[in-house]
Amino acid sequence: MFRVRRNFGLREAEGEIICFPENDCWYGDDLLAIIAQRLTGCSEWDGVLGDAMDKSLELVLPRRDKAGPVRAAVCWRRAATFTYFLRGQVAESTGGFDEAIGPDSGTL
User: Fold this and answer.
1) Residue 105 resides in a domain
2) Under 8 Å CB-to-CB from 2, ≥6 apart: which residues?
3) Residue 52 domain boundaries
């Protein structure tokens, strides 16, 4: 169901930066300003992926790769989708989320 909703959102989105928040995630007050500043200052970047942390600031994905450029083959090890902040045209060019895979699709 997440991918269906995200794909609907991608079709309707008109922003310069697209993100995928979930109903139980929290972003710091200045996070969106920081993301906008980073993307404005680095025009060659397609987006920014962040760290997912719990309330005690422990990493949710402790086996994540080190910081650096992201390729399609490693993006799922780098961050959870609610920490993706992509330029609008990049998010649109991906073709969306595969609705046939994942925890709510019956494939796991």
Assistant:
1) no
2) 22, 81, 97, 102, 104
3) 2-93
Across the range 82-106, mean pLDDT stands at 78
Q: Provide the domain count of the chain.
A: 1
Rg (CA), the chain: 14
Which of helix, strand or coil describes residue 8? Answer: helix
pLDDT digits (tens, 9 = 90+) for 22-37: 888 888 899 999 999 9
d(CA 88, CA 60): 26
Among 37, 64, 29, smallest CA distance to 50 is for 64
Three-state DSSP class for 63? coil
For tokens 């500043």, name the residue.
Answer: 37
Quick check: is 103 in a domain? no
Q: Answer yes or no: is 98 within a domain.
A: no
Task: For residue 77, name the pLDDT band (cuts at 50, 70, 90).
Answer: low
Phi and psi for 66 in degrees, rounded to 5?
A: -70, 165
